[in-house]
Amino acid sequence: MSNLLNEVLAANKNYASGFGEKGSLPMPPGRKVAILTCMDARLDPAKYAGLTEGDAHVIRNAGGRASDDAIRSLVISHKLLGTNEWFVIHHTDCGMETFTNEIISGLLKENLETATIDRNGWRNLKNSGGSSEGQFINWLTIKKQEVSVLEDVKRIRNHPLVSKSVSIYGFIFDVNSGKLIEISEATEAGKVRT
Amino acid sequence: MSNLLNEVLAANKNYASGFGEKGSLPMPPGRKVAILTCMDARLDPAKYAGLTEGDAHVIRNAGGRASDDAIRSLVISHKLLGTNEWFVIHHTDCGMETFTNEIISGLLKENLETATIDRNGWRNLKNSGGSSEGQFINWLTIKKQEVSVLEDVKRIRNHPLVSKSVSIYGFIFDVNSGKLIEISEATEAGKVRT
């Protein structure tokens, strides 16, 4: 068993030993909120938004993008489990700003192992064992966070399965300060809070 | 401004005021781990697995399913940011066990507002303003968690863009006890830890 797996199971044993009343929380989020944010390791949505177990649905993917799968999750969140305020939260220094569809599919075509990055960009350490499947995926990379947040709020707002009764807010999380910055008409053309 | 939005911003101000050294964490996950789990409000992966800011990528969607979008995120996680141990964690009492593609697309066709559930199943409170778009989505519902975890671990394991050097573990989180239960050959046919 790996060291990490041992550590995770030990931490879980400790968590479960103090679980108490958390064991009887209901399924629907108590504060009727859903957060869509990035998978980035520096982000802890429960901590940065002041939420605890039972409060909120949390949907995360690379970039915090409004992918079809994120919209699947959000529609279930409102339609079946009653959330009515949604936060779309991208962040500064996001990995999704460091590459393009062409760059990642090129890297994957050479090999599947972890690449390195320096001032000249991404490069592989070897060149065998890759797959050309990467070219068929839209990786949903980001050029500018203020733009991607607005695009994603708008895509969700205009989706035919999203009720107009749901409020949707757009934010950027600053990984250096821990602050949430609302993205609104003042920062980009187009209304964010809808 | 909604009460919830005010509360979130106040909580964030408090979080940012004690951010300290977290403001200089690097982008790659320090413990080289990624977790794919459900958006359910009762789950806090950082707490149940003993992780803190900077440690792990966290990917979440309805069910914790190995959707195309989750795989997009996992491939980025390993190829560009170096994670090499992945956890797929579904959970007991999951909302995804309460409906089928036909049920949710039928409910959405009637209206987009939150439905209710009782012993007779899901039903809408009104019948206007819906959309037939739901029938074009695969909602990735779950019949049995032990089966869905195995299916998802296998889908990821066999994906052409996933390196064989990544370890993949399957677990169920028990929402009543807070415990992680490993799903292995002993619980279902098929090897999970690969």
CATH architectural designation of the domain at 29-99 and 139-189 in chain A: 3-Layer(aba) Sandwich
Order of helix and strand elements from N to C terminus of chain A: HEHEHEHEEHEE
Unreliable stretches covering 5 or more consecutive residues of chain A: 189-194
CATH topology call of the domain at 29-99 and 139-189 in chain A: Beta-carbonic Anhydrase, Chain A
Largest sheet of chain A: 5 strands, mixed
Helical stretch count of chain A? 5
**Alpha-beta classification of chain A:** alpha/beta
Question: What would CATH call the homologous superfamily of the domain at 29-99 and 139-189 in chain A?
Answer: Carbonic anhydrase
Side-by-side strand order of the widest sheet of chain A: 2-1-3-6-7
Largest interface: A-B, 99 and 99 residues
Radius of gyration over C-alpha positions of chain A, nearest whole angstrom = 19 Å
Instruction: Determine and state the CATH class of the domain at 29-99 and 139-189 in chain A.
Output: Alpha Beta
E-strand count of chain A? 7
Oligomerization category of the chains in this entry: homodimer
Strand percentage of chain A:
15-25%
Shape of chain A: globular
Helix content of chain A: 25-40%
Distance linking N and C termini of chain A: 49 Å
Task: Explain briefly what this protein structure is.
Chain A has helices spanning 3-17, 45-49, 68-79, 101-110, 145-157; strands at 33-38, 56-61, 85-91, 116-118, 121-123, 167-173, 180-182. Chain A is α/β, with parallel strands linked by helices and 194 residues long.
